[in-house]
Amino acid sequence: DAKTTQPTSMDCAEGRAANLPCNHSTISGNEYVYWYRQIHSQGPQYIIHGLKNNETNEMASLIITEDRKSSTLILPHATLRDTAVYYCIVRPTNSGNTPLVFGKGTRLSVIA
Amino acid sequence: GAVVSQHPSWVICKSGTSVKIECRSLDFQATTMFWYRQFPKQSLMLMATSNEGSKATYEQGVEKDKFLINHASLTLSTLTVTSAHPEDSSFYICSARDSGESYNEQFFGPGTRLTVL
After folding, report:
1. Residue B59 burial class via C-beta count within 10 angstroms: exposed 0-12, middle 13-18, buried 19 and up
2. Which residues of chain B are within 8 Å of residue A36 when distances are taken between CB atoms?
3. For A99, which DSSP code?
4. Which of A99, B2, B11, B73 has the highest Cβ tally under 10 A?
5. Which residues of B touch A84 (CB under 8 A)?
6. Residue B12: pLDDT above 80?
7. Alpha helices per DSSP H over chain A
8. Tell me, what's the pLDDT at B94?
9. Cross-chain residue pair B43–A103, CB shorter than 8 Å
10. pLDDT digits (tens, 9 = 90+) for B22-76
């Protein structure tokens, strides 16, 4: 079972920041928050992950609330190529061979 | 980053035939690979976990005799859809975990679209 809640869909104007929320109120202390995205007819692509602190890489920023019950993925300057389904996933740090379990995700549409 | 490939990228077959899909980790070794299936407008659904040198572990509701998985080497897993029917038409995606990395990142292939006529 996916342990996260995300809005079904969102729109964002091209060039603006896209802020994608995720609720994970039952997250435990040893679970990371992962974000993947899936562009139409492609395999999922890793974006970013974090445990407690905010994280930033070349693709996005991840803001995790202090109580860790929610997070926001930020695409600072969305382009049309960022149109995709974005998945927020929680999984233990010592996940071993446990596979990623995908929920329904958020369908982000970037509009020109 | 680590690369996972799939072959073929798409395939059309007649009902009753078998189709083999290959999943390769190109620049790392993977003792564990995963197979997912995705129907239109739905999320990815885990089908099975493929372990090198041993039998695959199937999720509930997935027929192991219909979806044959072979993980014969550390870089190759195959999924064979036997006696395919139109309801097996789907997007099949494999994923691999780098055995040499401690953080257990999971990398995905580009997917294979199967259409059964």
Report:
1. middle
2. 108
3. P
4. A99
5. none
6. yes
7. none
8. 97
9. yes
10. 999 998 888 889 999 999 999 999 999 998 888 899 999 999 999 999 998 999 9
